[in-house]
Amino acid sequence: MNNQHFVNKAFRVFAINSILASAGVVLGTFVDAIILGNAFGETGLSVLAVSMPIYMVYNLFGYAFGVGGSLKVSESIGAEDKQGARTYFTQAIFFALVIGLLSTLLGMLFLPQIIAATGGSGLDTAIDYLRPVILAAPIFILAPVISLLIRSDADPFLSTVGISLSVVVNLVLDLVFIFGLNMGVFGGALAMVIGQFVAVAVYSVHFFKKNSHLKFCRAPLSLKDGYHLFHGGFGSGSAFIYQGISLVVINNLLSVTVGVSGLAVYNILFNVSLFAYAIFDGISLALAPLVATFAGEKDTAGVYNTMHLSLKTAVLLSIGSGLILIVFAAPIASMFGVAENAMVVVQTIRIFAFGVVQTCINCVMAHFYQTIKRPTLAGVIYFMRGFLLLIAFSAWLIPIWGVMGTALAIVGSETVTMLLMFMAAVVLKKQGGYRNVLLFREPVIAKDNIYETTLSSDIKELENCVVEIEAFCERQDIDTKNAYFINLTIEELAANIINFGFNDGKPHFIHIKIALFDGDIYIRLRDDSTTYNPFEESEKPDEALDYLGVSIVRKKAKSFAYNRTLVFNNLLIIL
User: Fold this and answer.
1) Distance separating alpha carbons of residues 346 and 296, to the nearest angstrom
2) Which of 252, 412, 464, 529 could form a Cys-Cys staple with 393, CB 3.0–4.6 A?
3) Where is pLDDT greater, at 126 or 108?
4) Alpha carbons 407 and 535: distance in angstroms, whole number
């Protein structure tokens, strides 16, 4: 079994929570679209269409600093660098806050011009909706940054709770403000803003948890530091700026060729597409902390196993999503209250469904390349699918097919991007001598220099493990002293984990890995029990007696560390 049990469990936990969290983010605008569409008809949906580029700008900075910061935090945690994790956390929060304040200042100064540029000329109600949204720019940018950071620090569940509560608050206040207090589109925007405040408040609970790595510290805050952090996540964040520019272009094309009704129909397609994208974004956000952590641990098998699960899950879910959109297009269209163009909406949704699988593959592969420090390749994928090809296909197809041309443009851009991506990956694989098209640069650790196994909660298995380790030490010509301490370390720590960590009566596992690297002996133990640190001396008499052996390990090791990472307990000892 080796590490597969832990990869499967971590991926399952992160994927479920990340998909729910991504769907929750989308649900906020989806709820607004349904309520505003039914309350104000095409005018309400058109206001949302005009405001979408603003949200894309927020998401650009939120996800660029959030992804860049969370990847650095995950790598630092995997490398047992607590100070590094705190530094990157501090930088991500600081720069996101600064950009948010600048966005508010510039947005309020140029609000009429922004509305005109996004295709909203003549929509007077757009000002009422966008004013509170722009004033709350720091919160809209901070929300995804903090959400991504706490996921990287093994708290995906809290991220899901925060987003879920924000959606509920948004929905309730939408109904109160719009239908109860007659506040118009301003009420819808105010409900969205308050929902984001609630999300950030919930996320902040993580900072007070005992095992949180996310603490503020004195950190370098130069423009160069901000650029490096932003660049680290720009591949993912750039998707939103490209999406924002594309929205402006498509909105203006529809305004000229179809009119306000075209904007309304496209806004419906956009909101429906976001739900499909939420699945792929959720899987992408799940693989990022796992891959970054495994890469920091130099665990090549963990990286490949995670990516295999990610692609398999994404493809299966995308096929299911496409079928649902084709079969239930009519009921979905009826939710938005646009009866006159219902058939056009249905046809547009069904055309879009034929590009869902391609979109899935592009999103997951781009996020993986971003995570393994190939931001240029990830950026090219986002640029092609979300900007260059999408605008080119839209300019060609919208004048011919009207609103349905927007769906055809999405299918065309995603399909061509996927084909070009795989062609480029094959070329780079041959040039760089990589194992496959994932293009992961594997750490240079000879296979013979690694020993790993997985034990169950049956302590009898530890005896066989000790025999195998002795044989490993003999094969590697490890001197008697170090061989003794390797066995002592494994025996004492594994026994304590089994005896005192696995105390809930449920089946549990310990993954043990020994690696010879750069003249040192690295020992890593990972278990799936609740939080338990054998390096902490217990006040319980029976545990205190067993701690004597652990104390010897602490004294003899060059370094040792405990972390709660990827919902597991992780011990690293260097001899």
Assistant:
1) 47
2) 412
3) 108
4) 57
